[in-house]
Every structure is written in structure tokens, then in C-alpha cells.
Design brief:
about 230 residues; alpha+beta; four-stranded mixed β-sheet; elongated
Length: about 230
């Protein structure tokens, strides 16, 4: 995985042919019979992400560092790993912030502030920091990305200090909860994209299958077997 300062515009163009399209349509029909609508699932995930972003008080992403994992299923799986790592980190941040409900003294708030700051700075995946970063991958021509600014500015103000004075933990907790929802929706989009890409790969394999082996088959060969 390498750092990429600019998003890539290339796509995984794939010519599947009629048989590939038939396989995809058969797959969609199958999962619809199970009560799952893949297109609606993806649309809902995108809609939910947009709603979360519009409602959240997002911290400012000062430096747009982009971690582009690549453009294949392996890259998508790596992005999945990064998102799951973030998921665990945000749950831990929420756990730290919830401790204030048990002890709201300045000393306790200062300790929680430090725990949160340390967790954010130490959260990495494959050697790369995950906060103040845009995580992205392209799979099947579809770009999946998550902007992840550090939520530390939500705990800092002109009056806030390491002693915990005036630290707004409630706003911080609201943001973390919303970010967890956004990560879940992004994982749903990524899962759908991976599934579709795997179907495309199988369709390609079907298209490249050598049917001449059947044409060369001699049905009379079994007559000589005893």
C-alpha cells in the first residue's frame, strides 16, 4: 500500500459478453428471491452516508492525505481491514468518553482526554495512520472512500486544556456514534462491490472456457472399454 496524493481516475473496465451478463442477472435474481435487493442496498448505504455527513458536526480535515489501496479485490479487502480497525478504534473512543458519566471531575476528564488523544495517534493499519486521512479503493470501477478527520478538534477550544476544563465530550460522543454508522454503511457498500467484482471474475472465466474440448470428444471411445 502506497500513499497517493491524488485520486486515481482509472477504472477496471471489463468486457463480460452476453454470458457474463446472464450470470450477473441470474445472481441478482437469486438474491432477490432471498429478499435482498443489491441495487437498493447500495443506494440506501449511499443515502445513509450522505445523511450522516449532513447531520454530523464534522471536524475540519486540514491535510487531505489519501491512502489509495488500489483497484482490485485484494485492495478492497485491505480497505475492509482498515475500516474494521477504525471501527474498533471508534468504539474504544466512545468507551473512554462514556467514563465521564461515572466521574466528571477535571482530573478524570483530563485523563480521558489523554486516553483519546493517544488512541487516535496510535491507530494504524499496515503502518499507515488512519486519522486525518482519506481511505479509498476502487473495485469494479466503483470508488469507495471514507474521509476520516481526527475528532480531536471537537475536544479542543480556546479554553480547553489537558486538565479537562471545558472539554465537550457530549458533542464528541455524538460525532463518534455517527462515524460508526458511516463506517458500517461504507462496509456495506464495499461488501456489495466485492461481491459484484467476484461475479465479474467468474463471468470472465466462463467466457474464456475452451468449449472445443467438447467438440473434440469422441463418444465412440467408450465402446472399446471392457
Amino acid at each position: 500500500m502506497q500513499e497517493d496524493k491524488t485520486p486515481k481516475n482509472t477504472s477496471l473496465g471489463t468486457n463480460l459478453g452476453n454470458s457474463g451478463n446472464n450470470i450477473i442477472e441470474t445472481f441478482k435474481k437469486h438474491i432477490k428471491e432471498q429478499g435482498i435487493e443489491p441495487d437498493i442496498l447500495a443506494q440506501n448505504a449511499l443515502s445513509n452516508i450522505q445523511a450522516i455527513k449532513s447531520n454530523a458536526k464534522l471536524p475540519f480535515l486540514a491535510e487531505r492525505k489519501i491512502r489509495n489501496f488500489g483497484e482490485d479485490i485484494k485492495s478492497a479487502n485491505e480497505l475492509t481491514g482498515a475500516l474494521q480497525t477504525l471501527q474498533i478504534a471508534f468504539k474504544k473512543l466512545l468507551f473512554f468518553a462514556d467514563e465521564i458519566s461515572q466521574d466528571s471531575s477535571n482530573q478524570a476528564r483530563g485523563q480521558v482526554y489523554k486516553q483519546i488523544k493517544d488512541k487516535i495517534s496510535s491507530t494504524t493499519f499496515m503502518g499507515d495512520v488512519l486519522f486525518d486521512t482519506v481511505l479509498s479503493a476502487k473495485i469494479g470501477g466503483k470508488e469507495i472512500l471514507l474521509e476520516n478527520p481526527s475528532p480531536m478538534p471537537l475536544l479542543e477550544s480556546s479554553k480547553a486544556s489537558s486538565e479537562g476544563e471545558c472539554v465537550d465530550f457530549e458533542n464528541f460522543k455524538d460525532y463518534v456514534s455517527e462515524k460508526l454508522l458511516e463506517i458500517n454503511e461504507t462496509l456495506s457498500l464495499l461488501s456489495e462491490a466485492i461481491s459484484q467484482a467476484q461475479i465479474f471474475d467468474k463471468a470472465q472465466e466462463f467466457d474464456s472456457f475452451d468449449s472445443s474440448a467438447f467438440e473434440r470428444f469422441d463418444k465412440n471411445m467408450f465402446k472399446n472399454l471392457k
